Amino acid sequence: MTVNNYHHRRRILVTGGAGFLGSHLIDRLLADGNEVLCVDNLFTGTKDNVAHLRDNPNFEFLRHDITEPLQVEVDEIYNLACPASPIHYQYDPVKTIKTSVVGATNMLELAKRLGAKVFQASTSEVYGDPSVHPQVESYWGNVNPIGIRSCYDEGKRCAETLFFDYHRQTGIEIKVIRIFNTYGPRMHRADGRVVSNFIVQALRGEDISIYGDGSQSRSFCYVSDLIDGMVRLMNSRDGFHGPVNIGNPGEFTMLQLAENILDITGSKSQLVFEPLPQDDPRQRKPDITLAQAELGWEPKVALREGLEKTIAYFEKAL
Ligand code: NAD
Ligand code: UDP
Fold first, then answer.
1. Which of the residues in the chain have pLDDT under 70?
2. Domains in the chain, start-ordered, CATH in brackets?
3. Which one of 89, 127, 152, 183 is the catalytic residue?
4. What is the rounded average pLDDT for all residues in the chain?
5. Dihedral sign from CA coordinates of 102, 108, 111, 112
6. Cis ω before 69 (30° cut-off from 0)
7. CA 78, CA 29: separation in Å to the nearest integer?
8. Whose CA is nearest to atom 19 of ligand 2?
9. Ligand 1 centroid from CA 269, angstroms
10. Active-site residue, 183 included
11. What is the pTM for the complete model shown?
């Protein structure tokens, strides 16, 4: 039973709702006729991302850090709060791991009290530098437990453990998604992620910073596809918990990504080669067989089209 079963709209909590993905998710949940409570400590997110919702009576914002307990009344919880880009999550690594572990525990306790369904935004980083390619959900990963990415990777792995243990111990309904690199409008222009970095550099005519030789690969998912996968997972059949990969299987090297962005922008920026960060994964590509079978989901937006939309956003935002 939900706390508000007399209520005709679902009340949904989105942690990290003022961030890149959270704000797009909230737009979708509101468009679907829900009420949304956005909880965010504004570490990497900004009120600008949800400013267009200020006068929407079905939207509420609460400034709160999820490492502290939260008492609210909702029907569903999407837990997205966590810095996601390497420079942000490495800024205060102890805080990053606390956000994943203590924050997840607080959201799971809340879900237990309310009998609410709870969703965890996990990541392809749980596979580390993968030796299985493409990555299937049954692969346990290859993660350095003591490196500079570990605060994020191991924090997210531990959060997955907590979700499954809470489910087994208390019976709460959980949904765990593993998100592969996602891009689109509202990415933070200075968060250091490759798509935003290259676009900003190209538009400003600055050098394009390729780390290493640029032969490492990633698979880039456009934000609207990802949000569709998230909502499908939350609404999937009872008993399906994931973890499920959501990402675009199109695989590109960083050199190919740079070439695409230079081509679309017509920029004359030059490529410069900089040192590869420690533990940078060599390759990443989702196997989406499970998402196709369970959620009827697959991405619709090809890289070129998604880059064009993202570049159009940054042209206005810069
Ligand atoms: P983001 O940095 O834009 O958003 C994260 C949000 O969480 C921000 O608004 C931030 O202020 C908030 N936050 C951070 N710590 C918090 C805390 N302790 N309490 C409350 N709020 C807090 O990043 P994003 O790209 O939107 O990522 C959202 C989620 O998706 C994250 O959990 C991330 O790990 C996951 N994810 C994202 C990607 C991607 O490619 N974007 C890939 C894999 C996983
Ligand atoms: N990268 C790069 N130049 C940049 C930023 C990132 O070559 O300016 C590389 C980075 O080394 C990695 C890939 O792009 O191999 C993706 O980096 P990002 O931080 O976007 O995501 P993640 O490494 O978490 O997948």
1. 1-7
2. 8-183+220-248+285-300 (3.40.50.720)
3. 152
4. 96
5. negative
6. no
7. 11
8. 193
9. 30
10. no
11. 0.96
